[in-house]
Fold these 2 entries.
Entry 1:
Amino acid sequence: MDYQSTRDPSLRASSARAVLDGLAPDGGLYSMPSMREVSFDWKSVLGMDTQGMATEILTALLPSFTKDEMRTLVKNAYTGKFETEDLTPTVSVGDDTVLELFRGPTSAFKDVALSMLPQLMTAAREKCGVDDEILILTATSGDTGKAAMEGFCDVPGTKIIVFYPDGGVSAVQKAQMTTQSGRNTCVCAVRGNFDDAQTGVKNVFAAVTEGKLLDGMGVRLSSANSINIGRLAPQVVYYFRAYANLVNEGKIKSGDKIDFCVPTGNFGDILAGWFAKEMGLPVGKLVCASNANNVLTDFLKTGRYDKNRPFYKTVSPSMDILVSSNLERLLYLMSGDAALVKHLMGELKETGVYQIPDDLLQKLHADFWQGFCDDIGTKNAIGKVYREYGYLCDTHTAVAWDVAQQYKTANPDHNPVVILSTASPYKFPAAVLEGIGHSAQGDEFDVMERLCSETRIPVPKNLAGLREREVRHKDVIDRDKMLDYVLNKASQKEWF
Ligand SMILES: *Cc1c(COP(=O)(O)O)cnc(C)c1O
């Protein structure tokens, strides 16, 4: 099975090449031609441990790799890196199940995919006969950069540069990044906001490609962004893990349907859930939970995508996003019509708006439900879940919990609901402490300690002691210096 661009079926690539390149040459996303091409026996993995499941699922989605190769990559990616051997445990919270995706090395759900991506990328490099060292460039608003660096840290044949907006990330996020270890990691603050850093990275990619600036240097650029299929595929696994856990605990019988509620930003996480459903997992509805930036809520209701609206900075910042890139893959796979997708993405670029045909909207409604929750609702949800069930959740998870309750009220015939929990509460300690009814004035590290003494829930190891750790990365540059910075770094063999 080859992958192809969502905008032009004649642009094809092996799954290994798709992982290596990230984006198709016409700006489309690499997608399988249709989910029917993925052959998979969903029942056969339910009895396996998580690494076994991952091996089977990733080989089905990325057939450039043999099962034996994949088994090794999975082992290298995950062994000993997460708090629990099953990687993503489930816990009961009231009538619902919470799927904890934040037990990885940086306490964010992006660890699940970004632990695996470097393994896939270096193996893909070998398969494609590429000798160049891979230099990953990432702009981050906080979480992705740290998770990507932890994933790529000291992986042979790779280096990574992370740009973050100077003064634009939380104190905890900044400390997580600037204390990053590894001989191949580099962190640099950019004077400007997140959009400046993100645009700067895109400009560096364009300048390097057009000017062939790195040719002959033995280095090529790549991205760890969630448009890469190598970042999406590993996320399918935990949907199967959750289902198997519910069967094992006797909460459902094998074959019963369950619903998932997913706090959504770029639409990667929830799309992985749709992949799981298409691969046979008995999923009823996928509930898309948004914060005040509710562009997806409106879209899934009406079929009209309109990004021309105010942008809100919320307490769930990883979902503050108005253009959800991975939606493009869903539209392609549901319609099977690359020309339509190309047209819609053109409209989005030109006008910021597109409207999908009615038959496609009907298909969306069969698989998805939608809702949103603003900051007041988020803090209320944190307090309610803590008081009623003794469970402390982060702001993103609280959005999903609130929307899951909306969903159940509106759909009395719902299936058992699994809520995806995407970050440790200690990554957003101020909003969480306020949510459980305390003032959160002062230094963010003090707030973290107060949250811990209040709840007695231990601070994850990677966050405890952050304040004392040595700062290794101190560079701060103007945004028009990013290209020079990258070229200079690319020319240095050793960074440390
Ligand atoms: C990235 C992120 C999300 C959103 O996931 P998408 O795949 O972009 O939809 C939700 N919660 C947290 C904590 C995140 O870091």
Note: The chain has a mean pLDDT of 95.
Entry 2:
Amino acid sequence: MRVMWFGHILKSIFQISSKMDILSHLTIPSPVTLLKTPWTEAAGIELYLKRDDLIHPIISGNKWRKLSGIFDHYAKSDYDSITTFGGAYSNHLVATAASCAILQVPCTGIVRGEEPKNENSVLKICRLYGMELEYVSREAYKESNRTEGVIQRVLYIAEGGAGKLGTIGCHDILRETDTSSIDKIFVACGTGTTISGLATYAREFALTSEVCGVQVLKGDGYIAADLEQEYGVEGVTVYDEYHCGGYAKTNEELIQFIKKFTRETGVLLDPIYTGKMMLAIHKLCLNGSIKKGERIMAVHTGGLTGWFGKSAELNV
Ligand SMILES: *Cc1c(COP(=O)(O)O)cnc(C)c1O
């Protein structure tokens, strides 16, 4: 009994200090860049980019923000390992794999679909970091991917790092940034966890900026509904018409826009999330929803490993 208790204290001390250790691997606070392109000039807006893509090359953007709160929780409790879920190109799986390697936390990734003959580059990187991978059928995955909680000292994290714990670290995106002169803050939304964190923080600290989301999945207003029902968040604007065909779908307009934007700014966007967010900002300037003189801050949530699954689209 005594040995167990002592072991528990040692483990807690070790884990709390290791959460500090990971910060020396990350660029936090992330910088903010003012961007100029012909279309921002034509629209007469100021476009700032919160560079969460620069936090770490693999633990990208909002995936770190979400994991940050989850690791704080992990360190305070008596867990042995982490298990989480993702598709074959999941930014969340690879971010979890890299973070767990730094913190020396054993981790398992449950991957949607049958095991392929050749694993893709993202999953190979997960294994490089020491993540165990298990494949499950799409049907079984559908039933389990939202599992959150504890089973036999294993901390289960839902797909994408979704959930209340995940929102807490997202507060830091705004906490570390002066938004007093910003009219609108934009972020890409998948599960809505990140925007929920931003909106909660904005309300708590009475920020004057409007929080806007760009939904990257098809489905009328589902993020707005989720935000109200699951997180109790209201008063955000969610645009649901800029998904370019659906989740992880691209179209020629999106790819051409990203190519042009990258050349004009030197900032690479990803094809699944931030490219769609930026295309939406551009279109909202054109249709007058974003007005001359407005100051916009877009969050670059990272996700650049998404290109591993989309390189064929660049042939257009
Ligand atoms: C996962 C992800 C998002 C979506 O975040 P949610 O919290 O699920 O809404 C946005 N951008 C990038 C780059 C991502 O990887």
Note: The pocket of pyridoxal-5'-phosphate is lined by residues 61-63, 91, 160, 188-194, 270, 273-274, 301-303 (CB under 6 Å).
